[in-house]
Design brief:
The complex is a heterodimer of chains A (114) and B (112). Chain A is an all-beta fold and 114 residues long. In chain A, 0% of the residues lie in helices and 49% in strands. Chain A has no helices and eleven strands. Chain B has 112 residues and is an all-beta fold. In chain B, strand 5 (43-49) and strand 6 (54-56) form a beta hairpin. Chain B starts with a strand and ends with a strand. The chains are: A mainly beta (114), B mainly beta (112). The A-B interface holds A 31, 33, 35, 40-45, 48, 50, 56, 58-59, 88, 90, 94, 96-98, 100-108, 110 and B 2, 29-30, 32, 34, 39-44, 47, 49, 55, 87, 89, 91, 94-95, 97-105.
């Protein structure tokens, strides 16, 4: 079955440590996105990538980094510079950006920084 | 700018109807609607494009007023499974990499 996988589902880290969240898709989609969701709030865009080896900052990119070395993978690193990293992180993909299509979301990773 | 959704929350009895609105201060190219159950991934419901095209589930009804930059999602004869938080996401043009700006969400609870 095609879809998006995110691992792990729950992640705990100590303050000051970098952590990398995995996002893999087998939908053959060109575009991928990372969102952050805080309790009772909407989704805020962190980074997005329209094609392999290219990515752009979203609205809240500070303290985060990404890479897009393969079409199917778009890992997100939460660095120690992110002041309040505890949140629910969602990865999404879309077939392309030339036509308007829906985004497909992964199950999410809940990160807690202690 | 983030679109504004209204109402923030609504409680229904099974079989009742509801309307969820999404307003933007910017000209819009498309509006996307998603439903999210607690702790789960958002699920796609519908896309409405400038010019009238729609993509989505047949059982979902929505409108897009281009002049007012508003979209409304119509939930009729609600079922328990309709419960969740509904988000609208907006695109202001077609060449922005497909990125969406989401509203703050509308929490819908359907009671037996």
């Amino acid at each position: 079955d095609g879809g998006i996988t995110q691992s792990p589902k729950y992640l705990f880290r100590k303050e000051g440590q970098n952590v990398t969240l995995s996002c893999e898709q087998n939908l053959n989609h060109d575009a991928m996105y990372w969102y952050r969701q805080d309790p009772g709030q909407g989704l805020r865009l962190i980074y997005y990538s329209q094609i392999v080896n290219d990515f752009q900052k979203g609205d809240i990119a500070e303290g985060y980094s990404v890479s897009r070395e393969k079409k199917e993978s778009f890992p997100l690193t939460v660095t120690s510079a992110q002041k309040n990293p505890t949140a629910f992180y969602l990865c999404a993909s879309r077939v392309g950006v030339l036509e308007v299509n829906e985004q497909f979301f992964g199950p999410g990773t809940r990160l807690t920084v202690l | 700018q983030q679109p504004v959704q209204s109402p923030q929350a609504v409680i229904l009895r099974e079989g009742e109807d509801a309307v969820i609105n999404c307003s933007s201060s910017k000209a819009l190219y498309s509006v996307h609607w998603y439903r999210q159950k607690h702790g789960e991934a958002p699920v796609f419901l519908m896309i409405l494009l400038k010019g009238g095209e729609q993509k989505g589930h047949e059982k979902i009804s929505a409108s897009f007023n281009e002049k007012k930059q508003q979209s409304s999602l119509y939930l009729t004869a609600s079922q328990l499974s309709y419960s969740g938080t509904y988000f609208c996401g907006t695109e202001s043009s077609y060449n922005q990499g497909g990125k969406l700006i989401f509203g703050q969400g509308t929490e819908l609870s359907v009671k037996p």
